[in-house]
Design goal:
alpha+beta; BirA Bifunctional Protein, domain 2; 9-stranded mixed β-sheet; 11 helices
Length: about 400
């Protein structure tokens, strides 16, 4: 990709209302653009990151047997009335009348729609367990959206739903999804705490949240570094310094970013929406359900919160928009030839071919945070200067040697 052709351009200054690193750098770097408070466009650079994250999520959801699909965002009031959530979700759900005075809502979540699909299309208990998921935008009526992608009115989510004949089967699946989520976040470069939490507005049962410890977070958790124990501070009876109930070490308290959550609904939807199936003995059994969410767009912001410095983003290779940032500081055909060599080698390259000063090119490269920076100048001769974004040290290498080292 030629940087001179990239839409959109970097900004000299971050947004005036930006308080988090991710809001500053994602906007200033041309990854996202705000249409209105809490609603953003993902520009080409940002979409490449979203695409990388989504592919990681897809791979891990497919491994556990998930089938990808897509459900409507626009939903009728009637299906939400079956569970009573048309009223209980009023504070967070966009609800309105169309021109024919019929009531509709924008999807804050998709439990009602997916359960309706399953009860109408499940032919036998032999069809269970069933795991289906989608990656799609959700809508929440946030009164005070802030932090860029950290808290928005429209945001991208992966939501998976599992259906089961027995509680034991549901529990087994729940554990497998926890492991799959841990792989997703690890592949994105993040260390997460699996924290027990309240079910909130979605269920009365306890749920589990996947929290990234960060001062930029809005949540507060208690956790133990000696084991995997963690709880959301809202439900915990412990405080910092108390003994961990699992291993006895002192627990810590910290702010955190919630990047995923999972809920067991059990037979709630079976009762509310009449979802039953006969088992192998011909006995009527409720179709049990659980749901599992990952905030794709918030995950992008969380990565930036963890991986940045005072100059810009430091993308992990797995989710970076490009792997290599090629900077040409001289006007000749050598840089374009090297650019083609890297493409032929199968490496994703952003080539800064702009007629800008070296200082501006270096500043933009640090801001964009692409993992490897490659510089061609009169000083490098027939070689290239290779530097990792996270490193202060650069080395002079031959082109093929640089390609081999990056690959």
């Amino acid at each position: 990709m030629f940087q001179s052709k990239l839409f959109a351009k970097t900004l000299k200054n971050p947004p005036k209302d930006a308080v988090s690193a991710s809001h500053c750098y994602l906007t200033q770097g041309g990854f996202i653009d705000m249409l209105m408070a809490g609603v953003y466009s993902y520009l080409p650079l940002g979409w490449r990151v979203i695409d990388k994250i989504s592919d990681i999520v897809r791979e891990e959801m497919n491994v556990v047997g998930g089938q990808e699909m897509l459900m409507p965002v626009l939903q009728p009031k009637s299906i939400w009335q079956e569970t009573g959530r048309w009223e209980t979700l009023k504070e967070v759900m966009y609800q309105f009348k169309d021109l024919s005075a019929k009531d509709f809502g924008l999807a804050a979540t998709h439990e009602e729609v997916i359960y309706d699909l399953v009860r109408r299309n499940l032919n036998s208990y032999k069809d269970l367990p069933l795991l289906v998921y989608q990656i799609q935008n959700k809508f929440r009526a946030e009164l005070r959206p802030k932090g860029g992608l950290m808290r928005g009115r429209e945001f991208m989510m992966k939501d998976l739903y599992s259906f089961h004949l027995s509680q034991n089967d549901l529990n087994d699946c729940y554990r497998k999804i926890i492991e799959a989520y841990q792989k997703v976040f690890s592949r994105c470069g993040l260390e997460v705490k699996v924290a027990e939490a309240s079910g909130g507005i979605f269920t009365k049962k306890f749920s589990h949240e996947f929290q990234v410890v960060s001062d930029a977070g809005e949540d507060k958790i208690l956790y133990c570094d000696g084991c995997d124990w963690a709880q959301n501070a809202e439900i915990s009876k412990l405080k910092a310094g108390d003994k961990c109930p699992q291993c006895g070490r002192p627990v810590q308290a910290g702010k955190s970013i919630e990047v995923g959550n999972i809920f067991q609904f059990g037979d709630k939807y079976a009762k509310d929406m009449n979802g039953y199936v006969n088992n192998e003995k011909g006995e009527k059994q409720p179709i049990l359900m659980a749901s599992y969410g990952i905030g794709i767009s918030r995950l992008m912001a969380a990565v930036v919160e963890i991986f940045h410095d005072d100059k810009g983003i430091i993308w992990p290779v797995s989710v970076a928009p490009f792997k290599v940032h090629l900077l040409s500081l001289k006007q000749d055909k050598a840089a374009e030839k090297i650019y083609q060599q890297f493409l032929t080698a199968g490496l994703e390259v952003l080539y800064d071919d702009r007629d800008f000063s070296p200082g501006q090119k270096f500043a933009d490269s640090d801001l964009l945070g692409i993992p490897y920076r490659l510089v061609i100048s009169d000083k490098t001769g027939n070689k290239v200067e290779l530097k990792k974004r996270a490193s202060k040290q650069a080395e002079l290498l031959g082109v093929e040697e640089a390609i081999g080292k990056i690959k």
